[in-house]
Amino acid sequence: MMARRLLLWRHGRTVWNAERRFQGQTDVPLDAVGLAEAAAAAVLLAEEKPDLIVSSDLTRAMVTAQALSDVTGLPVYADIRLRESSLGRWEGLTRTDVKRDFPDEWLRWLSGALARRGGGELHREVAERALAAAADAEGQTVVLVTHGGTAKVLTARLLGLPVPFWRVIAPLANCHWSDLRREPAGWRLDRHNVGPFPEHEPVSSAVDAEEPEALEGESAAPRACD
Fold first, then answer.
1. In this structure, what DSSP letter does residue 190 have?
2. Which long-range contacts (CB under 8 A, 24 or more apart) does 158-164 make?
3. The pLDDT of residue 215
4. Tens of pLDDT along 24-43?
5. What's the pLDDT tens digit per position in 157-181?
6. 3-state secondary structure of 17
7. Residue 160 CB: number of other CB atoms within 10 A?
8. N or C: which end of the chain has fewer CB within 10 A?
9. pLDDT (tens digit, 9 = 90+) per residue, 80-125?
10. d(CA 67, CA 63)
11. Which of 137, 129, 125 is nearest to 180 (CA)?
């Protein structure tokens, strides 16, 4: 049976986050800031008394998860289903790069018409695989160490939001988490963007696979269902 409580924890900062590059499933490690973030966040998460730690198998998530393992003594279980969205040819590019190199894709994305960013995964595909991983995680309090885009769509899916409204969930800052509890009527979001650095804004570093902020002079339209 699925856990009674899920803590969806985004990994610490990477160089690509700092450079505001789309990471997707490219295996980018934590930078020095990300390692410090993970260590600080792990102390707070340990106070939540988790029973289980399950992590995306990408290095940035596994190293973040290991920081919590070091504090709690719990092992870390890797699950490929918690990986970030695949972003295809956008991975490694900045928003400016995408606009320059794939102008048609960029404009379709801003308009909401582009469902597969860079030829990668659909939001609902990511949500379904992440939901399956969550369903297999048993315990009272389970920490799922994942990525910005995956955490966002999984939260929306657990809450039962229609796909067009998934973007009302704000992205997680690096090493911040969402706290969800399962009740008889369904899941409830108790806390969001919890972390050790309250001065961080939710989008202080690039989200891995979410909507790119519009560049100056542009405005992003609501996303179409994918």
1. E
2. 158/6, 158/131, 158/134, 158/187, 159/186, 159/187, 159/189, 160/186, 160/187, 163/123, 163/124, 163/225, 163/226, 164/222, 164/223, 164/224, 164/225
3. 40
4. 999 999 999 999 999 999 99
5. 999 999 888 888 999 999 999 999 9
6. helix
7. 8
8. N
9. 999 999 999 999 999 999 999 999 888 877 776 656 889 999 889 9
10. 7
11. 137
H or E stretch including 198?
none
Q: How far is CA 99 from CA 42, 61, 96, 162, 174, in A?
A: 37, 28, 5, 29, 25
Look up residue 202 and give its two tokens. 């939710």
**Banded model confidence at residue 222, pLDDT cuts 50, 70, 90:** very low
The whole-angstrom separation of Cα 91 and Cα 81 is 18
Q: Which domains does the chain have, with CATH numbers?
A: 5-194 (3.40.50.1240)
Nearest to 120 by CA among 25, 37, 194: 25
Q: What is the mean pLDDT of residues 123-134?
A: 96
Whether residue 108 contacts residue 99, with contact meaning beta carbons closer than 8 Å, is answered with no
Separation of alpha carbons 180 and 158, rounded Å: 9
List pLDDT tens digits, range 182-200: 999 999 999 999 998 765 5
- Give ∠ CA 150-31-63 in degrees, rounded to 5: 55
Rounded to whole angstroms, the Cα distance separating 175 from 13 reads 7
Active site residues: 11, 84
